[in-house]
Amino acid sequence: MAKRDYSFYPGCSSQKGASASNCTTSINAICDVLKIQLNEIPDWNCCSASIGYAGGGELPRLTLSARNLALSEQHNPGQDVVATCAACWLATRETTERLAHDDQLFTETKIALKEAGLTLQNKTPVRHFVEVLIEDVGYDALKAAVKKPLTGIKIASYVGCQTNRPFGIAGESFENPLYLDKLTEAMGATALKDYDKKVACCGGALAFSEPEKSQDLIKDILQAAYDVGADMIVTPCPVCQMNVEVYQGLINQRHGTNFNMPVVYYSTLMAVAYGKSASESGLDGQVIRAKQLDALAGR
Amino acid sequence: MSNPNQTIPGQYRGNFLREVEANVEEGEWVKMCMQCGVCAGSCPLGPYWDYPPQQIFMMIRAGKREEVLSSTSMWMCTSCYNCMVRCPRELPITHIMHGLATYAKRIGKAPQTPITPRFAQKFWDNLTVTGRVNELKLGLALYFINGIGEGIQTAMKMQDIGLGMLKTKRMSPFEILGGHGIKDKAGFRAMLKKAEEIELAKIAKNQVAGV
Amino acid sequence: MADIIKIGAYLCKGCGLGERLNIGALENAAKRAGKASVVRSHGFLCNQEGVELIKADIEKEGVTRVVIAACSRRAKTEAFRFDEVAVSRANLREGVIWIRPDTKEAKETTQEMAEDYVRMACAEVRRMTLPTANPKAALNRRILVVGGGISGMTAALEASQAGYGVTIVEKTDRLGGWAGRLYKRVADRYPFADPADTGVADMVKAIQSDAKITVHLNALVSRTSGAPGRFEVEITSGGAATNETFGSIIQASGFTRYDLANLPEMGGGTLKDVVDQAGLEELALAAAGGPIKRPSDGREVRSVIFVQCAGQRSEKPGHLPYCSGFCCTTSIKQAMYFKDRNPEIDTVVLFSDLRTPGAGGEDFYRNGQRKGVTFAKGSVRAVVQGEAGPVVQFQDEILNDSVSMPVDLVVLATGQVANAGVNIENAPESAESVQKVSILNLTYRQGPDVPQLKHGFSDSHFICFPYETRRTGIYTAGPVRRPMDIAQAMEDATGATLKAIQTLENAGLGRAAHPRVGDLSFPTFRREGCTQCKRCTVECPFGAIDEDEQRYPQFNEARCRRCGTCMGACPVRVISFENYSVETVGQQVKSLEIPDEFSGKPRVLIFACENDAYPALDMAAQNRLEYSAYVRVIPVRCLGSVNTIWLNDALNNGYDGVMLMGCQKGENYQCHFVKGSEMAYYRMSKIGDTLKGMNLDTERVTTYEVAITDIHRIPKLINDYIAMIEKIGPSPFKGF
Ligand code: SF4
Ligand code: SF4
Ligand code: SF4
Fold it and tell me: How much is the ipTM here?
């Protein structure tokens, strides 16, 4: 199989020593299996996620993503831009769509880009890595690569907000997207279809500035997973993964709960099913260990 | 009318609406709201909002300038986009909320509490220095946002989390020394400066035009 | 020929009938009990060979009455249509084998059921004769249109284009009605962005140049008599009367303006700068594209508030309880009058629920918003006089704010009051039925105008037959029927025109128009037996029966819908149709053998409305839902046609109970004949005493309201009823 090439926009949280570094690890592991080549956009910058608005106005914020798009055009021509982080994907895709539909903004953006010596055509599709998996590779091929089926592991698919809205994965509904369930089932695990916090909000960036309110949201997300008998939660989003995993101790203190629910990336799940080691799969990055996956990966 | 804070709002007369349309990202959509309330019922932190989006849009139409701009509402938006995909009129509600926040902050109306406006500003400052976000610095800045004393308390509370992140190598103490950043910082900053210039010039022009 | 009764009974063995039933025994039943002269069975009766077999018997054997013992009368209607003989159907498929289990235990009762249906069909057909067309049939291809507004003009033009002559009677001095008094109308086509020309001038021109259309202005209909095909109408204009005949009538008498004086708290009738929507149109017409000026001092209006639902959707005395449906879009349009001229003018629409029906309604609303019209959910407490003009005091329902807003002009969106003429059924007088002057001046015994349903609008079968009034051949269209806007009125008028054409053509052929289109049968009565009790004239839902000089009922066949309610009403049973009579049903009731009280086999008769209940039973059978083998179903044209004698016969013959299944009655009636099921209920409510007199439990006669969708409910009703009968025990009349 020939390799598929993509222009990769990793985003801040995926860097070495950052909160979603384990996501990158596992993505690399499955790319290796699926013959996907991610070519990092050289010298990419932060997209300002969804919280930059206090400091940056509309145009500066759009310019941030426009710079990444311009660099991608220059260094990875003809390759779709792919992001693994929900916020990165959203901000970048939002930018390309806004610039495509608003000539004035596009002109102004180009003036700003010129200061950095860049130009922009704005013709590159901006895609989420999940889209690459299900559209370019396809469920059948994803399934065919499984070496260690995750038989018997019960999984609550937590899609969260920004992978799902406002764009979402093509063909999926906003209220009940099914691709994560299909992915986990392709890996041989059991998808808990009654999990009813699938698209609920974890507080996003407000988990920092409004910790208690956000933790109340997270508590419901966890409780619902326990209610359907989940062994673990799987998510595509770095913010979701971090928020739902790391605050469990604080929530337990505040609410007297006993949460200890592993929250893993779909890519970690897939890497394990594809026979990768615990560290290749990013399992080392779990603050709450996913024991069943550890056991499988260790075999 | 060069100082927008001196605009005298008229009840239901559309003055404030016009101000919003001219200055707020996607503000021209506000008049299209049909007051169905779907957004108000979709917002995860809805119970904490001073006014839900539906009400904010009505207040803009009713000319309640002070109340809207100084409200905590927009700062409670988690950017979940729930409202936006459900709105039957397809208003880009999330973006309007961001835009209102930006505008309120720019003209000095953003509230002191909650801390989200200041946190968000820190985030922006952080990323514009090096081109990338430094999570550790951002976190520390946040803990100390209300002064040293409270900061230490928060830091203590968050200690376990920090340790967990350190142990799993998802946080690096070396970040404090500089950490990640882009190479072309000069070009990057010049680009942002230009974008800001263009935007401010637009705003000034709007004000000359009397909105 | 018609006098010779020679019954041919044809049994089908297809569709599993041959396997499930003892066909030989059925043949015997037809021969012995049914007295059929020719009895044949066939493996596949509805195919060409089977049908040819029957045709051959009609031609060569002189068969004059045909019994088809096969599927439901609703199936294979084309195959089993023999125009020259009377036909009756024994429903062995949907009525028997499909609703019974194919088990050994059920075999006996299933066979009994089938044999009974064969007997019943033979008994029925023996009393049926072939209907012939109404002898008074008259063809008149001219239509009277009462009212020259948008609905009336549309009807006239549509009818003329279809080749029919039209006479318009308009009470004012010009055509156009309310639409003619508008500055502009609501946008009627994509992109639904701007107020549009009303189109009235063009329509008037088209009418004036149309040789097939005659217009009487300043004219009234002073007398209407006759029936479809032969309406005689007197038109009075300026003291002079002319007479004309018409095939059918379209009443497009529209609406009247709601009286603003009913809304003093909103400044209605007291403040000069408070107008209704019609008032605003007057101001806009006067402005002729220039700035709209307010009435009090002629100053240009710089701010205006529209108050929606003014005096509408309210139970307060003097208010209209309904939504008029057009006024939200009208206010949007009127706000555009201001915004399109000068976007700086403040326009606020205060609504409680903004309703913009129609294809373009939502787009029009959005365009209003785009133009800067402010919409606020608010309820007005009062409109008072301020220093510089009216002040609107309202509660903003979203912001929960109490607001006082001074403006130059207030427009109250008041509703439409139907102009339907005299309320002949004397429903309680309410504000909305102020109109007391007759529109049609019908000479009908039942009153001078078409019956109303509620709020003064004319009665029609809202869902199934919206244009039909309860006077055959007279169709209401436009806001006289329900509140509506121009686009709806034009559509309404077009529909009513088609119905008016259909009815006059059918009248010309002497056939029923609706809903039994093409039916040739009509009721006649035996004069010698009639006691002149007038029950038929009163109970006929359609005012079809007048009185002659000797005070006998006088049937107007062309007005008749063939429901049989008169037949059900007649206490001395002198009313009948050729193919549907007290006898055709009564003999069916009496034709079966009732097992004795020791058999453990009760018998329950079901009279099922053929429009809804009977199809529902057929559909239950198609779904193979089971119900008891102890029931025998007789379809009736309408529950209103059920004569209590049939119940008497049944109970006296030892049936254990009778179920009557008809359509929903009352305000939201579903009855195809409007009042039929209601009349049945009324009559059944009176027979309790009779039952007690016979020493029978009142439950032995029970009436049910069912719908065509009650496919699962009806079998359950039947089974529950049988269980109840088994509990109270067999009828004491068995074996007498
Ligand atoms: S995007 Fe913001 S305003 Fe909209 S529902 Fe989510 S939190 Fe509320
Ligand atoms: S969902 Fe949309 S139309 Fe409805 S109230 Fe919210 S913004 Fe307005
Ligand atoms: S009651 Fe029915 S059948 Fe009898 S005259 Fe009236 S419409 Fe005709």
Answer: 0.91
